Amino acid sequence: MISNISPSLSQEEILKSQILLTAQELYQRYGIKKVTMDDVAKAVGKTRSALYYYFKNRDELFEAVMISLVDEVINELQEIIYQEEDLEKRIQAFCFAKIKGSEKTRSFITAIEARMDSEERSKYSDIMWNIHQRMMHSETTLLKKVIRDSVITGKISETDPNTVDTLLFVLLSSIRGIRRESVIETYSNQWEKGAVMLTEMVLEKIKS
Hints:
Blueprint: H1 11-30, H2 37-44, H3 48-54, H4 58-81, H5 87-100, H6 103-114, H7 118-123, H8 125-152, H9 161-181, H10 191-207
Helix pairs in contact: 1-2, 1-4, 1-6, 2-3, 4-5, 4-8, 5-9, 5-10, 8-9, 9-10
């Protein structure tokens, strides 16, 4: 979930972060439909007009909360990846982190989806799709940087960009599939082997 607010932010940035954090907590507790702009303003200790300075409506606020969530996930992934030294371990660390997922993030998504009725699912489908696309793009950008770092340091040769794009699409799609199936007891012990196999396949193609 959205992390603690950095003390280096300006007053406006601090207030915006407080609004996002508060909205996220209320969404998780009550569901999106039941949380109004007034509710968020009251919880933050500000007027409703203060919220409208940053977000023009509830939909924009919800989307901003989800974008913040994506950004936090990417920052966490980057920290995990760069604890490792070589490309293989970095990609494997990425796979492990994505499949296991953040408990806080998972609980938030589960909570809001559980409280969505069919009308809300339809209403917010475009926002959720945009968030999915943003996550895919951010993850791809991060992994391209990891690969590029290995090229710059001479650990691997330059790889055709189209090949990299295809590899990363397959990798990210496969990770999502493994994560989905790993909740089934029959496959719960297979995800680590799957992550290792994915890493080996990606490395083999990059180095070929």
